[in-house]
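User: I've been trying to design a sequence by hand for this structure and keep getting stuck. Would you show me what you'd pick, starting by listing the structure so we're on the same page?

Assistant: Good idea, let's start from the same input. This is the structure you sent:
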């Protein structure tokens, strides 16, 4: 080596010293992923003791409420704090207004009761969006080709009360209608559910990463048009912050960003701006890409999974909705 020595170049500062040993790496690690960070989304189907594979999401199944309760027991044993439920209801029950969401005995409420009976201590997070209930696959009521905001919000607020009555601990509206957080908060309070929280999908983007999810809830062949008139444009960041600010003012208890990895900058901005509990949803497309690459031998599946989850923590996430939750929890429990 000619010229200056490495110590002269760096001023005797060598970053590799702290990387030399496993113990020193662990000592200075800035972010840590634990089971406490995980929320497990599960898909529901009607009936008993029945499960269905989801072709676009290897390793993920739709299950009946009785089996959802057993999954909740497994999650609780691993220390996973909460699960989130998403129904795939019978096509005959879907209509233009998503009216089945207003049934106290619909699939999502049936599953909540079964889960809370089996595992009272696990958190149950329910979504009041109408897309699993509509015949057109949109998150709101469709009138003359337009998603009507205010009528949808009124229906979501009623559905939120029914979900709280069934035992939901947190309501997580993902529809992106204007004013829905405040309307749901008012409805819950008036019905005596002031302790039931709201996780706002504060920034849900009009993303291409939702495809496998739409197969999972049975809307992939129903959706008419797209959702760009109410989801956020992927090009926008300031709009996302303004949207989240409204949800904070209306009474949201936690904020969520969806999708996850493509929008880590949004996670960071929301956490820095509001200092509130902030979650991200590692959506179906993110999950399926990792699974497909691992299946083909292009990536180490376990390492990629864990690295992707750690990225959420580094960006400021307090919790992560991920289909990897069970798999990751088992790895985190290893000695």
């Amino acid at each position: 080596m000619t010229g200056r020595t490495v110590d002269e170049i760096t001023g005797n500062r060598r970053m590799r010293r702290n990387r030399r040993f496993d113990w020193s790496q662990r000592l200075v690690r800035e972010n840590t992923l634990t089971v406490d960070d995980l929320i497990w989304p599960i898909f529901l189907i009607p009936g008993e003791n029945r499960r269905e594979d989801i072709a676009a999401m290897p390793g993920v199944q739709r299950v009946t409420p009785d089996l959802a309760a057993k999954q909740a027991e497994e999650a609780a044993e691993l220390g996973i704090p909460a699960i989130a439920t998403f129904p795939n209801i019978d096509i005959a029950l879907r209509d233009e207004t998503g009216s089945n969401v207003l049934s106290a005995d619909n699939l999502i409420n049936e599953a909540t009761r079964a889960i809370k009976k089996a595992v009272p201590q696990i958190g149950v997070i329910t979504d009041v969006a109408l897309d699993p209930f509509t015949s057109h696959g949109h998150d709101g009521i469709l009138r003359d080709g337009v998603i009507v905001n205010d009528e949808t919000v009124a229906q979501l607020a009623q559905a939120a009360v029914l979900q709280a009555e069934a035992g939901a601990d947190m309501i997580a509206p993902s529809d992106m209608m204007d004013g829905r957080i405040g309307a749901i908060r008012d409805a819950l309070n008036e019905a005596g559910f002031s302790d039931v929280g709201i996780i706002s999908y504060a920034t849900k983007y009009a993303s291409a990463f939702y495809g496998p999810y739409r197969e999972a809830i049975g809307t992939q062949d129903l959706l008419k048009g797209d959702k760009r008139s109410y989801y956020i444009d992927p090009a926008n960041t300031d709009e996302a912050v303004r949207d989240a600010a409204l949800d904070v003012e209306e009474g949201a208890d936690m904020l969520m960003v969806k999708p996850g990895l493509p929008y880590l900058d949004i996670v960071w901005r929301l956490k820095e701006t509001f200092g509130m509990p902030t979650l991200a949803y590692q959506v179906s497309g993110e999950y399926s890409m990792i699974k497909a690459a691992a299946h083909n031998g292009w990536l180490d599946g376990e390492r990629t999974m864990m690295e992707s989850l750690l990225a959420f923590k580094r960006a400021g996430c307090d919790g992560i909705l991920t289909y990897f939750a069970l798999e990751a929890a088992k790895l985190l429990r290893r000695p």
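That's my pick for every position. To get oriented when you compare it with your attempt: The chain has a mean pLDDT of 96. The chain has one domain: 32-332.
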